[in-house]
């Protein structure tokens, strides 16, 4: 047998080599050492932590805190591997609620740097200083003067690993990484004061006060431009058992560098899935290549979290990750929908004689845009109505279809008179309804609606709209019903009113309803007059509720005086009013609060979603309302639930049309 085919001899590595290999996995750069020691200081209940740095932490990295300190008896083994006060058995990992728990940080540092610890506990009369090398105590601890707490001094990091040291960046860049780590912990722990000082500098590179706030620390560290645009919210999910506390920037702010501070169970971690989800929400609002500032703290049951995944603990795994990420994504989208209404834009005036921007900006010749990828959204060029009905010319020759004014209805009797109210809603049943709407919102469909372009109305229930290069057919009745249901919820107690002049007798309206086929009356139901009296009695009894919460007024004499105004320039179909009133009396659950509000809003939304498409002026008003009132409201207000996806159908798209013409 040839000698080169002889198997190699397996030998046991020297313990020093093993420890240095392990240390290289945990302490990859000075920022990793700082993170580990900051967590130790926070575990020790410190209220102030000071960090001193020289040469980016490679020459000196000193962390001083005023925490509980280390017992003198523990100094002998504190730098040995797997020595910890947090665990006694493996099962304790499922309930761990502190930062350091494996006992590897100090041990790893002692194998790649010169390490000394000075500490004093509350019970000791003096402090003690100890030095370590390769995890071993070098001589007995020496008594020394000092305040309560611990000072850990790391010198000549990676002195015995020249390859690692050479691979590191410049001291200035390493200092920047140290500053980023300290800044993130300062934001998450506002009650603790943090100081970062570069040796030789008169002023600290970073300082936050004790007992501050997260928003104030963000202002100190990241600047007022971010802090003034912060939008804070919290969310508790009972299904997946997690709490989220967030500070995100509104859509007025954006930066080219992405900044996301994520803490899960108080640990600074990274989650690519969560970051991608948040960025996808902001992509609807921010320019391409721009990002928000996001601080997020999640609290999960410890048994659902695996903290022992990565040597540096910057990554964790947890149960229901996809579902939790999706819930948080929905919450961020719901918050941004409200902040988008206050968005500000800036424009730059062009100096006289200066060329247009389009002339000065040269297009990238390497990126060719094909005709099938062009998005055409200029609705003023042609509309669907041109192909469905002949245009009516006025004396001036202009088309009457281009008018933006609403056609007047015959026998005008409805007018909005009430001023807008602004009362805070505190009823838990209504707040729960709002949260349910926001939780169920489809982010993808919401993005489509926000950027749609109205094409035309097909019939009383269907309309066409364009999104990018796709043409869709949607059920406008279903969309309108969901829109008005949500408007009822969000305008609760603050509805403007559509005054009915003159007021209409309630009993006569109910009799008209019973005479119609929609009521489904049969002789077995009883006398129509008695049924109308009974329904009128119910509505008169509940009139104070409808007036206070929904803006629907019925006088003591039984006269209908007003209806809620849910959208500007929108009025419901008068012919369906009698049936609506009858259904309020018979279909609304007036006994249970939550069911009462839910069923009332649903019935009202069903009534408001039906326009009058009869021939004449009403049909013209309905078409105008569809284009200029309902579809803009879909874009602005509607939070579409997933079930509404079944009411949208893609008819075609530009790439497919080009394929058809290529075959011809």
Automatic annotation (TrEMBL):
The DNA mismatch repair protein S5 domain, residue ranges: 218-337
Disordered: annotated span: 393-415
Subcellular localization(s) per the UniProt record: Nucleus
Chain ranges passing through the membrane: none
UniProt cross-references to Gene3D superfamilies, sorted A to Z: 3.30.230.10, Histidine kinase-like ATPase, C-terminal domain
Keywords assigned: DNA damage, DNA repair, Nucleus
Regions of compositional bias (Low complexity) in chain numbering: 394-403
Gene Ontology MF annotations: ATP binding; ATP hydrolysis activity; ATP-dependent DNA damage sensor activity; mismatched DNA binding
Repressor in keyword set: no
Tree of life domain: Eukaryota
InterPro entries on file: DNA_mismatch_repair_CS (IPR014762), DNA_mismatch_S5_2-like (IPR013507), HATPase_C_sf (IPR036890), Mlh1_C (IPR032189), MutL/Mlh/PMS (IPR002099), MutL/Mlh/Pms-like (IPR038973), Ribosomal_Su5_D2-typ_SF (IPR020568), Ribsml_uS5_D2-typ_fold_subgr (IPR014721)
UniProt keyword Secreted, yes or no: no
SUPFAM superfamilies: ATPase domain of HSP90 chaperone/DNA topoisomerase II/histidine kinase, Ribosomal protein S5 domain 2-like
Gene Ontology CC annotation, any one: MutLalpha complex
GO biological process: mismatch repair
Annotated family: Belongs to the DNA mismatch repair MutL/HexB family.
Name recorded for this polypeptide: DNA mismatch repair protein S5 domain-containing protein
Gene that encodes it: Dyak\GE19183
């Amino acid at each position: 047998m040839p000698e080169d085919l002889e198997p190699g001899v397996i030998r046991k590595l020297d313990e020093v080599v093993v420890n240095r290999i392990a240390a290289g996995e945990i302490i990859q750069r000075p920022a990793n050492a700082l993170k580990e020691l900051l967590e130790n200081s926070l575990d020790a209940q410190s209220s102030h932590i000071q960090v001193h740095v020289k040469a980016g932490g490679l020459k000196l990295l000193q962390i001083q805190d005023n925490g509980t300190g280390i017992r003198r008896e523990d100094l002998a083994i504190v730098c040995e591997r797997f020595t910890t006060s947090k665990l006694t058995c493996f099962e304790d990992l499922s309930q761990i609620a502190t930062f350091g728990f494996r006992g590897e940080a100090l041990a790893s540092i002692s194998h790649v740097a010169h390490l000394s610890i000075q500490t004093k506990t509350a019970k000791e009369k003096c402090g003690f200083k100890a030095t370590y090398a390769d995890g071993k105590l070098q001589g007995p601890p020496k008594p020394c003067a000092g305040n309560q707490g611990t000072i850990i001094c790391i010198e000549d990091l990676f002195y015995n690993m020249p390859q690692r040291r050479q691979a590191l960046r410049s001291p200035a860049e390493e200092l920047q990484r140290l500053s980023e780590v300290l800044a993130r912990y300062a934001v998450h722990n506002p009650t603790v004061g943090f100081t970062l000082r570069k040796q030789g500098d008169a002023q600290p590179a970073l300082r936050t006060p004790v007992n501050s706030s997260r928003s104030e620390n963000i202002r100190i560290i990241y600047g007022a431009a971010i802090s003034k645009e912060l939008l804070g919210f919290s969310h508790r999910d009972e299904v997946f058992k997690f709490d989220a506390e967030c500070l995100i920037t509104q859509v007025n702010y954006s930066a080219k560098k992405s900044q996301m501070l994520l803490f899960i169970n108080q640990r600074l971690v990274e989650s690519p899935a969560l970051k991608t989800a948040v960025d996808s929400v902001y992509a609807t609002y921010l320019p391409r290549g721009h990002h928000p500032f996001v601080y997020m703290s999640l609290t999960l049951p410890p048994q659902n979290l695996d903290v022992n995944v990565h040597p540096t603990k910057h990554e964790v795994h947890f149960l229901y990750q996809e579902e939790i990420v999706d819930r948080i994504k929905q919450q961020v989208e719901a918050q941004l929908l409200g902040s988008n209404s206050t968005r500000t834009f800036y424009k730059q005036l062009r100096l006289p004689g200066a060329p247009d921007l389009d002339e000065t900006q040269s297009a990238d010749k390497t990126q060719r845009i094909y005709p099938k990828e062009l998005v055409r959204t200029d609705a003023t060029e042609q509309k669907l109505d041109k192909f469905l009905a002949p245009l009516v010319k006025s004396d001036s020759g202009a088309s009457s279809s281009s008018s933006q004014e609403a056609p007047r209805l015959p026998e005008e009797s409805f007018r909005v008179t009430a001023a807008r109210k602004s009362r805070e809603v505190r009823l838990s049943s209504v707040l729960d309804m709002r949260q349910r709407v926001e939780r169920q919102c489809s982010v993808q469909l919401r993005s489509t609606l926000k950027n749609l372009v109205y094409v035309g109305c097909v019939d009383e229930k269907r309309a066409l709209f364009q999104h990018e290069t796709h043409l869709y057919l949607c059920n406008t009745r279903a969309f309108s019903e969901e829109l008005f249901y949500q408007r009822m919820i969000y305008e609760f107690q603050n509805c403007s009113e559509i005054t009915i002049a003159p007021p209409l007798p309630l009993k006569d309206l109910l009799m008209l309803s019973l005479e119609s086929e929609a009521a489904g009356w049969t002789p077995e139901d009883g006398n129509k007059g008695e049924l109308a009296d009974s329904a009128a009695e119910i509505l008169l009894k509940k009139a104070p509720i409808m007036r206070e919460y929904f803006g629907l007024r019925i006088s003591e004499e039984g006269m209908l005086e007003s209806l809620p105004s849910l959208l500007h320039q929108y009025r419901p179909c008068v012919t369906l009013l009698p049936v609506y009133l009858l259904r309020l009396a018979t279909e609304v659950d007036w006994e249970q609060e939550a069911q009462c509000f839910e069923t009332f809003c649903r019935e009202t939304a069903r009534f408001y979603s039906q326009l009058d498409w009869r021939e004449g002026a009403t049909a013209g008003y309905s078409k105008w309302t569809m284009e200029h009132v309902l579809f803009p409201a879909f874009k602005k207000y509607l939070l579409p639930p997933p079930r509404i996806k079944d009411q949208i159908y893609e008819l075609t798209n530009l790439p497919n049309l080009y394929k058809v013409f290529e075959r011809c």
